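[worker-b] picked up task from shared queue
[worker-b] task type: protein-ligand structure
[worker-b] ligand name resolved to zinc ion; SMILES cross-checked against name lookup, match
[worker-b] sequence length check passed
[worker-b] input payload:
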Amino acid sequence: MPKQETKASVRIYYEISGDKIKLKNKKCPRCGSVMGHHLKPTERWACGKCGYTEFAGKKGK
Ligand SMILES: [Zn+2]
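[worker-b] inference finished, payload out:
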């Protein structure tokens, strides 16, 4: 069985069922609502309900 390196941080957001890959949205840790994914100006997850924002990817600069 070949071992594939997968980025854990990315893997969390996808669910593979059969041959389909579906994006699994994060849930807001503050209010539990589904968070929106935004790529601009920087990749982040934002909750439309309470305004909680979590930045994805790089730490710092
Ligand atoms: Zn929220």
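[worker-b] attaching auto-annotations
[worker-b] The mean pLDDT is 78.
[worker-b] releasing lock
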